[in-house]
Amino acid sequence: MTTRFNVRKKVLGNLKPVRLAANSAEPVSRSRGTEVPPPETIEPIVIDTRMRGESEIMAAHLLPGKRPALIDPGPANTAGNVIKGLREVGIQRLDSIVLTHVHCENAGAAGEIARHFPEATVYVHESVTGYLVNPERLADSARAIWGEDAEKWFGRSVAVETTRLRPLRDGDSVDLGDRRLEAIASPGHTGAHMVFFDRQTGAMVCGDALGLQLPGSRTIRPSTPPSDFCHDEAVASIEKLRGFDPASLHFAHYGESRQSPGETFDRAITAMTAWRTSFLKKSEVTENGEELLRSVNACVEATLEPVPPSVRRRFEVANPTWVNIAGMSGDLDRKQSRLADAA
């Protein structure tokens, strides 16, 4: 028996995801006030978006330099927080807004921040530019997972003008003025995911390609969301990233990894494989989606994630277990469909 896990039923059913008050983002102001000098470092700087009102859950990464870039500005309703954070570290001009992918918690604020920094160019994988030109598509994809709470939790995005978009392919780069930022196609978390590598500093900003690692723990939780997560591609992408030999790795959730890049890659693959193994075993013996969720949750708490309750709660805010199960279920369904078609 293979249990089917329905995302919409899960969102609206009896087992509700963690609910927090929507974040009240700082109002966006163009007033500069007392200017702070720009950063002296060119290493990545974390700007805390305060997604869903929580600190250290979702990081926007600033890459300072002659032409500053911001990677993954966060949800739409935290744009004010990010703009305020940029001002506080001395950024008065932003040349590039760079997106690892177009999920609402990573890319939702792109339009508002582009309005605030009219000189900025927005870079994204070539196949998903339409989600930024027509943000209703982004809203629809968020509602498909999170239900009607999506706008409360993540806000409503505004459009990015077509003339300000630059589509990216694997191997393309973003001009940082004093160096270039390399785009690396890294499908798995989603098909149009990209990771960005600064060869001068050795810093690799990974988006969600490796999963999540939150303050207070070295544990990595995989991120396997609907609608197009692919386990095999995700593992292959991690091995591909390993080949670039980065000096540091930086998670969207949250900040720089807490061990060496080599160990981080190993832990990410181990966690993803362990979650998938648990999911496959439990899906064979459970009768419905809610039973599957309870069973996988028990494994997470008992063996997969040896973390304090405070860290587990924050994992559930940033990337709930039920979202991972829904993504793995979709991946399994697609594989079984391909096998059936080939038979």
CATH architecture title of the domain at 21-259: 4-Layer Sandwich
The rough form would be described as globular
Radius of gyration: 19 Å
* Percent range for β-strand residues: 5-15%
Name the helicity range.
Answer: 25-40%
- From the structure provided, what is the oligomeric state, counting identical versus distinct chains? single chain
Structural class: alpha/beta
What name does CATH use for the topology of the domain at 21-259?
Metallo-beta-lactamase, Chain A
- The residue ranges in which pLDDT falls below 50 over 5 or more consecutive positions are 7-24
Supply the CATH class of the domain at 21-259: Alpha Beta
Instruction: Describe the strand arrangement of the main beta sheet, using strand numbers.
Output: 1-2-3-4-5-6
Number of helices: 12
Name of the CATH homologous superfamily of the domain at 21-259: Ribonuclease Z/Hydroxyacylglutathione hydrolase-like
What does the largest sheet look like? 6 strands, mixed
Q: Tell me the number of strands.
A: 12
- Element pattern in H and E: HEEEHEHHEHHHEEEEEHEEHHHH
**Distance linking N and C termini:** 20 Å
- On the 0 to 100 scale, the average pLDDT is 90
Topology:
Elements: H1 7-12, E1 45-48, E2 59-63, E3 69-71, H2 79-88, E4 96-98, H3 104-107, H4 110-116, E5 121-125, H5 130-133, H6 135-146, H7 150-154, E6 165-168, E7 173-175, E8 180-185, E9 194-198, E10 203-207, H8 231-242, E11 248-251, E12 255-256, H9 261-285, H10 289-304, H11 309-318, H12 321-342
Parallel strand pairs: 3-4, 4-5, 5-6, 10-11
Antiparallel strand pairs: 1-2, 2-3, 7-8, 8-9, 9-10, 11-12
Helix pairs in contact: 2-4, 8-9, 9-10
